[in-house]
Fold this protein.
Amino acid sequence: MNKVQGLFFVAMFSLAYSQLIKGKSLPGCTDRCGNITVEYPFGISPGCYYPGDNSFKITCNETNKLIFGGNEVINISLSGELRVLNTRSYVCYNIQGNQISRQNRWSRLGNLTFSDKNRFTAVGCNTYAFLNTNGVGNYSTGCMSTCNSPRETNGSCSGGGCCQTSVPRGSNYFRVSPYSFSNHTSVHSFNPCSYAFLVEDGVFNFSSTEDLMNLRNITRFPVVLDWSIGKESCEQAGNASICRGNSVCSDSVRGTGYICKCKKGFDGNPYLSNENGCQDINECNTTSTIHRHNCSGSSTCENTIGNFLCNCPSGYNLNSTTNSCTRKGRPEYYGWTRIFLGTTIGFLAILLVVSCIQQKMKHQKDTKLRQQFFQQNGGGMLIQRLSREGSSNVNVQIFTEEGMKTATNGYDESRILGQGGQGTVYKGILPDNSIVAIKKALLGDRSQVEQFINEVLVLSQINHRNVVKLLGCCLETEVPFLVYEFITSGTLFDHLHSSLFDASLTWEHRLRIAIEVAGTLAYLHSSASIPIIHRDVKTANILLDENLTAKVADFGASRLIPRDKEELTTMVQGTLGYLDPEYYNTGLLNEKSDVYSFGVVLMELLSGQKALCFERPQHSKHLVSYFTCAKRENRLHEIIDEQVMNEDNQREIQEAARVAVECTRLTGEERPRMKEVAAVLEGLIATKTKHQWSDQYPEPMEFEHLLGVEILSAQGETSSTGYDSIKNVARLDIEAGR
């Protein structure tokens, strides 16, 4: 007998002996077979095992071996387990690689099933094996081990000559089949065979020097089987369960049937109700360390039914924590220590609980505040608008309050890019190091909230190379934020009027910028899914990137115009100097309001002067009035920026000036559409001065109302013939030059 077999025998003998001294069967029934005790509900003879289930019938053969399903029984546990010895499977080869022997092991267990305490194990170099079972969906598993030499391995079964894998609980049939990759030709000198078997977890310890040659001559391994009474749970069985006396019913771990257990303080066979059933344990006299009492010091043990008591002599008190005795009125020193430690620990526990509660309340308060800010900043309005108008084109990222704070370095003043009527704009750096522009809105009333949500809604539906891209928004802060792509070279206003940029814009730059802005507005008016009126077109809202490409920005005042309407009645909003006089007087908003504002921007590009300047004479404070008079009196050369005028572009400048004047006519009906303006400006590049606009348009006479303090008196007398001529010329330009 080798070392592994000897240790295994000692362990099994100990289990059998413990069963012998406590286990019993039905009266008149044989309860021994060799050194194994047979306990009810199992039995050897008819009438000695649980009726109605032949799975509890086991056989004692002529050699006094207890047999179940062809396997030798080594232990019966009343907790629902049966241990048997199961034969290994193997395949062996000669040195030429020819198979010389094979055995594939299979077993059927009746109503018993395999426990998940077993492990499927394969031993051998260049070996793989399969385990096929039923009862759990025809489960199959396997493992593989490889090696080229018998390296020293003790106890480890993880691929180098040995592999293991878990098996599912619930199967009552299995088949084990080992195989070899190369028929052991390369390892035959130290490993001629492949082995596969089931074994209880922790029982088999692999040794490469001993097991690769002949598996230490071990042919059988212990396997754990699960059993239970019937197929009903304890609740379903109720009073019909066979748990009697001082035992209780417990559902089986295998998911079907139940087992019986003795109550606490009792021991014996829980399936019997006679003197062999669960009996009271005398904790005061037992030698078992599991059931022995814990009375200490001068206290004495007194047995009770199902329990015990610790008693102290007169003049002493029992310490319920230690079950020891202390003199009345004179507690031992360690008692005070325990009281102090208990009090301290209790106090610290209370502090911890209070702190956790405070943190949870703070988190709930912060969450509620963020939700309140979300609603306050128009989150509900945004959701409602999106659901009403459709959100298929909306792609907006939601940023957190912490993310905004980090990106702006705590809203550092050095990060401020600009401030205006719609809010403050910061330079932000996101976690991926990308640079963005973060707009902190200035919301004070309901109308400003609507403007903010309107900008989100409008920009989320625009996909145009000359419109600043909206990346996302943050609504959970007291003041909402919009996050845009970062445009590096400032605004058109800065390039025209600020000393920040030394290099002046050439005529080619200015004409291209005008074309890009006109094309963008034409797209918003005519090609967007829902027509959009910007309502605040000005040089400060036109950004330039590193290539001086125009990007139209700040859509806070924009409005969506349903296709079945040509204009909307709104509260007048815009910037003095750029504000459409007709819109200012009537409150009727349409696309011609943007046309007027663009005309002012075009005049700024041509003249290099501000739209509104109080340093000019009274009649020339407004650029439209100043520019139109100069054009009408053939003094255009006095107002055009001297840095852009040269002999080659005078004709282009004259045409662009004519476009600017036509865009700023007093009544919207007489102004061209942005689509036509964009076509004419593009024609200046395509054909230079091939096509010209007619000179028959009358010039507007009154512009003082543009300052927002007077109302025109001659609006109704303005002719519309010039607008028709523009439409005709634009149509010719499109047909001829595009």
User: Anything to note?
Assistant: DSSP finds 16 helices and 37 strands in the chain. The longest strand covers residues 173-180.
